[in-house]
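Bit of a strange request maybe. I'm writing a small parser for structure token strings and I need a real example to test against, not something I typed by hand. Could someone generate the tokens for this chain?
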Amino acid sequence: MREIQLVASGLRSADDVYDALFRALGSPAWHGRNHDALRDSLVVGRINDVEPPFRLVIVGASAAGDEARAELRRLATFLHGLRGELRTRRRSIE
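Reply from user aminoacidic:
Good idea to test on real output. This should exercise your parser:
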């Protein structure tokens, strides 16, 4: 399985988290910056350069700002919740 790294050290805001995630996934500039748009791009596919299956590894979260750490927690919870739906489509995120 392909491993994707999201480098979180130095991130300060939720926007910073999305910027880092979209860089890691190779998302287009027009990608929506919310969980609904992220779900669509991962489940439906053909939007990001990186498609499931992949393993997302967050590095340096302890060196991120409070807002960024909170968004990283929300993102992890959201992605964990997508795992079942992705598996039924033979796509997965770990």
